[in-house]
Amino acid sequence: MLSRSIPQFLCDMAERMPDKVAVVCKTRSVTFSQLHQEALATAQCLRETGIAPGDRVGICMEKTLDQISVILGVLFANAVVVPILPRLKQPNVRHIIENSGMVALVTDSDRMNEVLDFADMSRLIVGHGTLDRDWPNLPYMRQFIRPQMFFDRISNDNAAIIYSSGSTGRPKGILISHRNLADGTDIVADYLSTNENDRICCVLSFNFDYGLNQIWQTIRKGATLYLHNLALPNDLFALLAAEKITALPVMPVIITKMFDRQLKLATKAHDFSSLRYVCSTGGRLSDGMLNDLKTTFPAAKIYSMFGLTEAFRSTYLEPSQINSHPTSIGKAIPECQVFVMDEKGEECPPNVVGELVHRGATVTKGYWQDPESTAKVFRSHPRFPGETLVFSGDKARRDDEGYLYFVARGDEMIKTKGFRVSPTEVEAEVVRHPEIVDAVAFAVPNISVGEDVACAYTTIARQPIPEHILKQYLKAHLPSHMVPAFLIHFEGFPITGNAGKLDRKTIKQTAFERLGLDQAAVATSSVNA
Amino acid sequence: MTDLQILNDYIRGEIGYQGELYPDLDLLEKQILDSFNVVQWAMFIQDRFGVQLEAEDLVRDNLCSFSRVIALIDVKRALGLTGQPQPN
Fold first, then answer.
1. Helix spans in A166-260 (H)
2. For the segment A338-367, what is each residue's pLDDT rounded down to a tens digit?
């Protein structure tokens, strides 16, 4: 008997629906049977290049069907998937290779130059692209190899290490077991009711858990996954209609791109009635984003979700509550509990801000080779003896009905004039301004009041709004202690790698430079936080 | 300056790409343009050539290479659909 795992799910589906189309990309598509054979063949190729069980294998690739084959191949080879964002800065790549003890790095032939410097640290393998004589090429090797099944991991074995770009310091590797992946798959499939009639459009990258989960959903439930690289939104709209897509997982940054006001959009020209749901995680959904989604996809349910990689996913909001609780992150996902706790580990009463604590199936194994950080975040609680919970460090609150609200990342609360201000609440109000696309609020040190509220923003027209006009608007909508003392216009916001989140750290640094504040002030501010 | 030179200069100057460029090079596939700056690329084409790009024009196939862009501009010009160049 195979353990409950992604390889087991694929073996099952290849048997149950061998001829159903599993994945479609621009150049080719595969059935479940073909995907299964390709994964087994890839595993065998990896074994022949010397990959042993438990070895960490880096994957630095663009989103292609070949990338999916490599991810699955590494799992079937009893090895551990370590995604590396393409175009990640060299010191970070070096850190991930060293920290994970990576024995091999699979990349695209086009990308070889990006990783050539690491050839002495890790074996380089081409997973997609043209053959040359210097490097093993998996698509080429697969043609001559007999697929073999030798997967033998148990559920508790390591399946993946995902490096998160924390707000400070080096990226930390989050260690994920086969059981974590299997549980995360079934929990999400449960509340999204994923089924074999689903056609999932994947605009996400496979370098983080949210994107990877789209592959797992497809394999587990026999859905079909359509790979799409979002560039111009009209191409996405055409695909949604032509392929009768039923599921569209996005992030706030993607929604902003989809409804870019600078472009004429073909949303009216298509029939999106097949779209069953849009789900989003990775940041706040503004009123504007919700409005765009509801107007364009009137038949679709909207799932607002929240999670951190340490526990994959924590909450989702029932779509029926999106109008009455638009800013809520909802309630705990199945098989998990989420608490708001004070510093003593007691549950906070409603409407009191505390730390978000996650308990249940999706709690990962900890940080890879980092016992100190692991001990801080992965801790026990007297109420649940013998169990490990994730103490997220994030600030949240619960309302009288039990709905949860994200308040801030732990180190981002702004302390001003005796108040503790949530950047999220400031941002939510700033983006209500009709000209503003996105906003990032943060603290600026000010001796007389502790900290000032500052807010960076982007506009539809990419032009600044005169400060006195914007301030007047905000004064009418926010309590005075929450009105930003500094408003900094950005033409566009930087995004972290291709994980698709706003790069708050860089935005804050750039804003500090523009405000003429030096790095010492930034450092002081973060120490005090 | 030819249309091709104008487009070439934009990719060199605004996008800062220093590698090889030729008319049929797929700028999106080679990631010279990404989902962020492709919007600026479209706006530039509209403003610089004084053409109105409608929703059906604003698709990958029309904007992914110099030759596709030039073909699109030519069609727009032939149809006499050029407006006044807009101030940037």
1. 178-192, 209-221, 233-242, 252-258
2. 999 999 999 999 999 999 999 999 999 999
Q: Do A364 and A497 have their domain in common?
A: no
Query: What's the pTM?
Result: 0.87
Q: Which of residues 36-75 of B touch A (CB under 8 A)?
A: 36, 38-39, 42-43, 53-56, 58-60, 63
Q: How many angstroms away from the CA of B22 is the closest CA of chain A?
A: 18
- pLDDT tens figures, B21-55: 999 999 998 889 988 889 999 999 999 999 999 99
One domain for residues A45 and A169? yes
A265 to chain B, any CB pair closer than 8 A? The answer is yes
Question: In this structure, what CATH number is given to the domain that contains residue A48?
Answer: 3.40.50.12780
A324/A305 Cα distance (integer angstroms): 16
Contact A443, A498 (CB under 8 A): no
Residues of A in contact with B63 (CB under 8 A): 232
Tell me which residue range forms the domain holding A169: 6-15+25-176
Chain A: closest CA distance from residue B5 (Å) = 24
Q: Give the tokens for residue A45.
A: 């190729």
- Among A63, A253, A264, the strongest candidate for a mutation testing the B interface, having the largest count of B CBs within 10 A, is A264
* Alpha-carbon distances, residue A456 vs A183, A410, A436, A514 (angstroms): 39, 20, 10, 11
The answer for residues whose C-beta is within 8 angstroms of residue A328's C-beta and 6 or more apart is A304, A317, A321, A399, A403, A404, A405
Residue A184 belongs to a domain = no
Q: What HEC string does A213-225 produce?
A: HHHHHHHHHCCEE
For the B3-78 domain, the top CATH level (class) is mainly alpha
